[in-house]
From TrEMBL:
It comes from Brassica cretica. It holds the Pfam family Amidohydro_2. Residues 485-820 form the GS catalytic domain. GO terms for biological process: glutamine biosynthetic process. Belongs to the glutamine synthetase family. This is GS catalytic domain-containing protein. PANTHER family: AMIDOHYDROLASE 2 FAMILY PROTEIN, NODULIN 6.
Length: 820
């Protein structure tokens, strides 16, 4: 029977998880007892915990994970010897969790803040607990994805949604008169707050998590039955609220299943029931949830807390339990095998992505992460001493990566919140000078704040005493500067999401040259590191020591590397990154360039992404692959083989918009005069305004990777983008063009199935110079509207300065290797 369901088991084992409800991890010296990892019991009852079925099972699971004896003492000894960061990395890696939603309202001694957890999970969001809001420190950098109530612990779930304000005020007086510590337990006050919370949540499009069912002894289980919520669910004022019942409502799983089946706003989450129950209890409670509830309304979480082992156990047992439940559903005829696999993906990630409206692409999750990342690749947080620094990085209009560095203690004290000052001129500088281009309309007058985006803060792999973080450009707290590249991408992405409920995903191929410094006739010059051909084994072998540092460094930054090899140019190599949501892809590209340059420098080489290093050799591009997703699903392919091009109508219209505006787009994605020395026929750079199926000479190529259904297109590639382009501005202008295609329902012309150069007479040549591309952009009013007039003035002003300078100083382009 197990062989019959091998495909289901493999799919469940490989799927990456969205953990939709969990709590903070604590320090090793916290007063929270490690034994609490395995039981909800407290006080004297905790002494009996080791005799429960789930305790015995979970203890064995952790001992097996760490390779220790099966005892609390042996496991705790291993934890102390390994260090929190090391065994947390191991737990999360093995769990395969790619997104984490944390309720940090749970009182735990010496708990780490939400930001700390980002070292282990690519995406972390915040769940705001209503009852302890006054006690919580709000960090504007952490995205709030949901609200939560523990009313079940205080006065029960029989919520009176018509309680008066006067009754609530009297309740508040009663609470305050009870003295400190303040604990809200008055039913009228709680009901009033919860009703208002649902109204606020609806206005801000936030769901509400509700604790239901079992918990610790502070809970009256009789009042935690979700059926008590009927009055709230029947209130027409709150009908559009989105509610999730936590913990499988155990032991009221059947009741929760019923509510989810009859109320469209009710969803279910089975965290805590898995893994705290026995195997029979876990399986039966999840089966009861699925008796009536749609599989589209059931979600996974670990309800992890205090120790990373709780996350590991929640994830591991959830995979096992969901397999058993869906296997039995197939065996009994409720589901087909493919329906079961689809249900598993829904339960573990897609439902949460849609319900919490997370800006994630489930297809970008990398299941290989669980076996490819070595624990030692994660470094501890930078300690606050005089030798530890933080770099705040930005990329300017001309695509140059710049940074300011501050000491870690100053960063944590003030820069973390207030940023550092930066002149307006910083976004008006061309590649040849550190002063603003006149036509950019940006000068040295005026200052903005470069404020770190803490979600991007990473330990620098090659300098253990330093961190790096990407900066947002703000006029003041909460008000973005209209020239900020990262904000521009976010703004355009919001248009795509709001108008079409779509998310654009991207993956970059990074081509670069490795050069070495030599002295010839008394003069220093840079020459290629190697002279091997495309995909040369000897060239790769020579560069292998660098890649043995580059790849682990990127993976330690949560950047997926798909492949790397020698390219066609002399000393040229390529590193291809996995695709992810556009904003993350742009951030990843910035860090990738930093890693490659720094590792090369460490080995005595210069890595350059300049578009055309040698006019007699092939150029370096930054080809970008793009797709669209809705609720985590790729919507680019056609739904069946009836489509002429294997594209969905959405995919075709978006791509048609990009193709239509490509001459204008070039001014952003190919930003130097040197870029157009690269974009030539017969160089795989896309010199003509056309597209083709798997045609690597076309400017736009549709791709069907291995595993995709025959004839269906999963993404498209733009060949013209290069390594001097600002990645955030590049993706923003591409996205803006695609939005225009969707709005106007543009259609693609027929694909070119031959070398475009052979039919050049029938095709339009893309701009052959930067000045032509700038002219096209200035005339493109559609992109002006979506991109922002002032920003486009700055971009075109900088580009015009580039054209003028390099036309007068053609040899100066040789110095570009030091800037890109």
């Amino acid at each position: 029977m197990e062989m019959e369901f091998k495909e289901l088991k493999e799919a469940i084992d490989q799927v990456e998880l969205v953990d939709a409800h969990a709590h903070n991890i604590v320090s090793l010296d916290s007063s929270f007892p490690f034994i609490g990892t395995f039981s909800e019991a407290t006080g004297d009852a905790l002494s009996f915990a080791p005799h429960s079925l789930s305790f015995k099972r979970n203890l064995k699971e952790i001992a097996q994970l760490y390779g220790t004896e099966v005892s609390l003492e042996a496991i705790e000894k291993h934890r102390q010897a390994s260090g929190l960061h090391s065994f947390t990395s191991k737990c999360f890696k093995e769990a395969g969790i790619s997104a984490l939603l944390i309720d940090d309202g749970l009182k735990l001694d010496k708990k780490h803040d939400i930001e700390w957890h980002r070292d282990f999970v690519p995406f972390v969001g915040r769940v705001l607990r209503v009852e302890t809001l006054a006690e919580q420190i709000l960090d504007e950098e952490i995205k709030i994805v949901a609200l939560k109530t523990v009313a079940a612990y205080r006065s029960g779930l029989d919520i009176d949604t018509h309680v008066t304000k006067e009754a609530a005020e009297n309740g508040l007086v009663e609470v305050l008169q009870a003295g400190k510590p303040v604990r809200i337990g008055n039913k009228s006050l709680i009901d009033y707050i919860l009703t208002l919370t649902l109204e606020v949540a609806e206005r801000h499009d936030l769901p509400l998590q509700i604790h239901t069912g079992f918990g610790d002894r502070d809970l009256d289980l009789r009042l935690a039955n979700p059926l008590h919520l009927r009055t709230l669910l029947e209130d027409k004022r709150l009908a559009k609220s989105r509610i999730v019942l936590l913990h499988a409502s155990y032991p009221f799983s059947k009741e929760a299943s019923y509510l989810s089946s009859v109320y469209p706003q009710v969803y279910l989450d089975f965290g805590l029931a898995v893994p705290k129950l026995s195997v029979h209890g876990m399986v039966s409670s999840v089966k009861e949830l699925l008796d009536l509830a749609p599989t589209k309304k059931v979600m996974f979480s670990t309800d992890g807390y205090a120790s990373p082992e709780t996350y590991y156990l929640g994830a591991k047992k959830a995979r096992e339990v969901i397999y058993l439940v869906l296997r039995d559903a197939c065996a009994s005829g409720d589901l087909s095998l493919m329906e079961a696999i689809d249900a598993a993906k829904d339960i573990f990630s897609r439902n949460s992505i849609a319900f919490y409206k997370l800006n994630l692409d489930v297809n970008s999750f990398s299941p290989q992460r669980r076996i490819s990342l070595a624990p030692q690749m994660k470094e501890p947080d930078v300690q606050e001493d005089s030798s530890s620094f933080v770099r705040i990085i930005w990329v300017d209009t001309s695509g140059q990566q710049r940074c300011r560095a501050v000491q870690a203690n100053r960063f944590n004290r003030s820069v973390k919140k207030n940023g550092i000052g930066l002149t307006h001129a910083s976004m008006g500088m061309p590649s040849f000078t550190d002063g603003p281009a006149e036509e950019s309309k940006l000068t040295g007058v005026g200052e903005i704040r470069l404020v770190p985006d803490l979600s991007t803060k990473r330990t620098i792999p090659w300098i253990k005493q330093e961190s790096m973080v990407l900066g947002d450009m703000l006029l003041k707290p909460g008000e973005a500067w209209e020239y900020c590249p990262r904000e521009t991408l976010r703004r355009v992405a919001k248009v795509l999401k709001d108008e079409f409920d779509l998310v654009m995903n991207a993956g970059f191929e990074n081509e670069f040259y490795l050069l070495k410094n030599v002295v010839r006739e008394g003069k220093e010059e840079y020459v290629p590191f190697d002279f091997g051909p495309y995909c040369s084994t000897s060239s790769y072998d020579a560069a292998s020591p660098l890649f043995h540092e580059i790849v682990p460094a990127l993976e330690s930054l949560n950047i997926t590397v798909e492949q790397f090899h020698a390219e066609s140019g002399k000393g040229q190599f390529e590193v291809s990154l996995g695709h992810t949501v556009a904003s993350h892809a742009a951030d990843n590209l910035v860090y990738t360039r930093e890693v490659i340059r720094s590792v090369a420098r460490k080995h005595g080489f210069l890595a350059t992404f300049v578009p055309k290093y040698d006019l007699c050799d092939i150029g370096s591009g930054s080809h970008v692959h793009l797709s669209l997703s809705k609720n985590g699903e790729n919507v680019f392919p056609a739904s069946d083989k009836s489509s002429a091009h294997g594209l969905s109508s959405i995919g075709e219209e978006f791509m048609a918009g990009v193709l239509f505006h490509l001459p204008s787009i070039l001014a952003v994605i190919a930003p130097l005069p040197n870029s157009y020395d690269r974009i030539q026929p017969n160089t795989w750079s896309g010199a003509f305004q056309c597209w083709g199926k798997e045609n690597r000479e076309a400017a736009i190529r549709t791709a069907s990777p291995p595993g995709a259904p025959e004839g269906l297109v999963t993404n498209f590639e733009i060949k013209s983008c290069d390594g001097a382009a600002n990645p955030h501005l590049s993706l923003a202008i591409i996205m803006a063009a695609g939005i225009d295609g969707l709005r106007r329902h543009l259609q693609l012309p027929e694909p070119i199935d031959t070398n475009p150069a052979d039919v050049a007479a029938t095709l339009k040549r893309l701009p052959e110079s930067l000045s032509e591309a700038v002219e096209a952009l200035e005339k493109d009013q559609v992109l002006h509207e979506l991109f922002g007039q002032k920003l486009l003035v700055a971009i075109t002003g900088v580009r015009k300065a580039e054209v003028e300078y390099y036309s007068k100083n053609p040899d100066a382009c040789k110095q570009l290797i030091h800037r890109y």
